[in-house]
Amino acid sequence: MTEGDRSNFGGLWNGLSYITVGLLAMAIFVFSGSSVDTGRVVASIALVAIGVAAFLAQRISPWFADLHRYWTGLFWALCGLGILGIGVVSSSTANRWIGGGVIGGGLVIYGILVASGG
After folding, report:
1. Dist. CA 99–CA 93, nearest whole Å
2. Which of 110, 63, 58 is nearest to 84 (CA)?
3. Rg of the chain's alpha carbons, rounded to an integer?
4. Span 9-31, mean pLDDT?
5. Where is the chain membrane-spanning (predicted)?
6. Between the N and C ends of the chain, which has fewer C-beta atoms within 10 Å?
7. ∠ CA(106), CA(108), CA(78), 5° rounding?
8. When comparing pLDDT for 19 and 3, which is higher?
9. Confidence band for 114, pLDDT divided at 50, 70 and 90
10. pLDDT tens for residues 61-100?
11. Is the pLDDT of residue 115 over 80?
12. Does the pLDDT of residue 3 top 70, yes or no?
């Protein structure tokens, strides 16, 4: 990522727009209907997190420029384990957590490959 690319990524208004849309979506999903759909609320939280990351990207990106591949691989493997754990815990039937297992397992494998240099 060059210095010119860094100015095009993220920013105050880009991050605030994601945060606003995520919070509005979460309010609609929580207060409409008779029950709360957890998947939609989690998606709204993810949208807010993307907004925060876009808002802070220009300030934080120099910290990650010189990360070692082991730390990057560990990050992706931990994300995969987290998704795998959420998928297993949040579903009472085996058929419904398969998607979380596939995505989580894929991220764990990706993290191992990044750490090993493959």
Report:
1. 12
2. 110
3. 17
4. 80
5. 12-32, 38-58, 70-91, 97-115
6. C
7. 135
8. 19
9. confident
10. 666 666 678 888 888 888 888 878 777 776 666 566 666 7
11. yes
12. no
Give backbone dihedrals phi and psi of 8, rounded to 5 degrees, phi first. -85, -10
**Which long-range CB contacts under 8 A does 74-78 form with residues at least 24 apart?**
74/111, 74/115, 75/111, 76/107, 76/108, 76/110, 76/111, 76/114, 77/107, 77/108, 77/111, 77/112, 77/115, 78/111
- Upper half-sphere CA count for residue 75 (Cβ side, 13 Å): 8
DSSP string of 6-69, one letter each residue: HHHS--HHHHHHHHHHHHHHHHHHHHSSSS--HHHHHHHHHHHHHHHHHHHHHHHHHHHTT--H
- Using CA atoms, how far apart are residues 23 and 32, in angstroms rounded to an integer? 14
DSSP 71: H
